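Sanity check. The docking grid for magnesium ion depends on where the pocket ends up, so I'm generating a full predicted complex first rather than guessing from homology. Inputs follow.
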Amino acid sequence: MARTIDIDPITRIEGHLAIRVEVESGKVVSAYSAGEMFRGFEQILTGRDPLDAQQITQRICGVCPVSHGMASVQAQEEAYGVSPPSNGRIIRNIILAANYIQSHIIHFYHLSALDFVDIAKIAAYTGKDPALLELKDWVNAQLSSKSLYPAAPFLPRYDSNYIENTELNILAIKHYLDALSMRALAHKLGAIFAGKLPHTTTIVPGGVTEIVTAKKIAACLSMMKTLQSFIDHSYVPDVIAVASAFPEYFNMGKGYGNFLGYGVFPENDGNSNHLFSNGAIIDGQIYELDPMKITEDVAYSLFSSESGLSPDLGRTEPAPEKHKAYSWIKAPRYGGKVMEVGSLARLMISHKKGRNPVVTKHIDALLARTGLKPDALISAMGRHAARAIESQILAERCIEWIENLNVGKPVFNDFEICKTGRGVGLTEAPRGALGHWINIENYKIANYQCVVPTTWNCSPRDDRGIPGAVEFALIGTPVTDEKNPMAVARVVRSFDPCIACAVH
Ligand code: NFE
Ligand code: MG
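Predicted complex below; grid placement will be based on this.
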């Protein structure tokens, strides 16, 4: 008979995700993913000035606000018939690239590494680095105290297999600390053109409000080169070290293997060519993106609004007592299919389309370095590797974007808000495909719908009872110790779930 295990919350920050797994003969046989709160941003937006949308939607999340701002201005640009000039497009790419890099760094070091790195090994540190010595004293003091939460956020933790090599652990712990400064630096870099971060004030329909100066170019270049050095010399090697210590995670958390991407980092002013291509991979075949195939089911979601609608017509009516429903997350589907979104999806789509030699070069280099076959990347460990490679590609390309900025050239094209109109803003947040749909009537927002990356990945069952991406990826995951279901946590966290976003 199946045994039920609840992990609630499973997320370290970024909202509460509850995971329930049913285990038989030491393996997960079915899983349920539940977002545990309702936020109501789509309702808050109704009746407001459309220009408020990129400010309000950025408050959905402090980790990926730039992407919500981007999706919102892109939706409005379609409604108003305006697009940014080259400088505006490039500045948005730079702000977004900085946001991706800080997001991928926080995910690997601060939200995931503690599943692999043994913090207790700090006790063996004999070097002279003041930050590590301070951490060593603090962890030792916490461990010997009777505190209920000793050494949070490092402990308590599941009793499991961690990296054994002391030197590697201490290096990873040092990089954990360095990564805090690197995230701050990425925010500072983005804020040169974003005004402030998180939650930029300068991205607007038609472009950006911050002009280009030689001083800003020089500052951006210097900061991006520091970030690039951290990515190349710490982040990528650390991911490879973790991957070498836990190769079994290339065989876990595979899921359906269907991927969706909307395309991001426009390389031309028509928004038709992206650094990371759009498209859909279904059963191993690549297809062009068709936004009309996007729908949202709510049979098992806590909403009374109609199920199966395109987001253009979608509504969000909370129904907390709904029978059989178990999540505040809707169930987006693409032509009825469950799709995974995120860095891995972006790399798989770009690699399959083969139009970007840089993506191909980095993926082939990783495969050569690890001796893996491309299919092994569709796994829990593959998702970590994908974020690291994506950060590497982005830092490299972002340096070129910064050099392509033109002092004295415009950053903004003027526009008029339409009395009536509709628009769709499709972009990619760090965690995957992000869409905003706006419907304007009498100069006000009549309807606003967001379909968010973690809504795709952590969706509950759809109207046909088909499990969501994370729910399916968990099937087959080993559970050898029911009190310490570490493999389940590692598989779920490989998706970098943000429930604050997913329930919006
Ligand atoms: Ni709150 Fe987000 C990203 C968006 S996730 S982090 O990346 O949009 O659903
Ligand atoms: Mg929504």
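Relevant for the grid: The mean pLDDT is 95.
Also worth noting: Residues 158 and 388 are 25 Å apart (CA to CA).
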